[in-house]
User: What shape does this take?
Amino acid sequence: MPRFNTLMAERLALMVLALVLVGAGIGWRQPMNVDEERFLGVALEMLQSGHWFIPHRAAEIYGDKPPLFMWTVALFSNLSGSPSIALYLPGLFSAATITWVLHDLGRRLWNRRVGVIAALLFLATYQSYSILRTGQIDSFLCLWVALGLYGLLRHLLLGPAWGWFYLACAAMGLGIISKGVGFVPALVLLPYAWAVRQRWHGVVAMPGQAWRWSAGLLWLLAGCAIWLLPLLVSIAQGGGAAELAYLKEILLRQTASRYANAWDHREPFWYFFVKVIPKYWLPLVLALPWLVPAWHRQLQKRDGRLLLLLGWVALVLLFFSLSSGKRKLYIFPALPGLVLAIAPLLPWLLKRWLQRRPAWRKGFTAVALAWFALWFARGWVEPLQEGRNPHDTLMSEAARVTSGAELVLVDWREGHWLFARQPIVHFGFSGQSRIDAAAYWLRHHPTAYALIPATTLGRCFSADKARRLGETSRAEWYVVGADADNGECQSVAPSHVYHFAWASPADSLPALHRPPLP
Assistant: This one.
């Protein structure tokens, strides 16, 4: 019992450290980038409209991502009453859970010391800090990937443990309805199959269990069915063309098509290895010149644990590198596997570095403590440096100068919708400029106004009758009324018109619109 209590205290201390590092400044943060603005807006619109299975962005169907992350943000918003805090709680929850997973796996595969090292390495890595502190899907996706990898390794290296295998499959299903790549833990089955065939040490062979392996697919589908089943039922009962188009978009175009031929963030094959890993996997990459030979020696001893971990990390990197679309956060799910492969070798490596240089020991400890302290301090400093979201300021001014009248959005960004203080009209988020449609709308609704970027203002409106509001999203924005129409745009009715207004006035969301910065 004393040993169990010590273990639990150790694990709790690591999880508290994760919460402290990732949660620093959480009450001061405000959504500042396009992803955070979009996902928070979708979650709040779900709460307002009750459209849970088909997400919407300013009344238009949003078909880029499955809804599980937005559901979670909506739930936390409802419970906490503070959307700007709720946006970051999924990442905070992920940080604590992944820390627990790494500590437990390190302890079970090697010993308690390795478990502590694995958890600390994960929290010390720059990419962990930079992603888990954000209100983005990838901070939540890594939770399901880590749980999937945990269950699979419990089964493949410490099993047979079919319950953990099925839990891993269900976690992957939930990962898929968070983001389509949630299945990546299953890639570990490839090095496992090789290790079993070659009789490597530490892997558990389970021949003649085909029906049990197949049942894992059912658990994965059960995880996906939490969203897909009610979605299909609702579409079958009354879905129109837009709902059917959404189903096709989310199941086909945003998954296989986007992977094979991405239309955004196109980067070369070597992008992650040259532009991302050297920076975002600090300080781990500094040890690679010593780790690579050490890994090679362990693999020569046919250590199945390292084969599965390193093989999985390599396959995840290869999987994302083969896609033409790449962002620095895509490879974050590989990080837990990497730190587990590093942790058992770190004591040997530190002994090798410090044994001949005793004076360096205190220096190393001081640097490690300072590294964590700086991450914690940065969590409080960043919100002060960033200040108020410029879209918040812009839309507040727009409501003031138009006296809260209906506002037409042209070439808009998610921040304009999220921080809107008045009813808005738009003609679709994607596609070309809608300034012709804005001119048509103002001619038929003379009490309305339009928010237009400077780059397209002169096509339909006189600049001398426009009022400058400010600059956001690398654009200068002006508000115009019907009197600014220069008559040069054809009067063509738009094919799609979307109306949206937040049910509560902006002042009812002080945590979102007015962050409590000192």
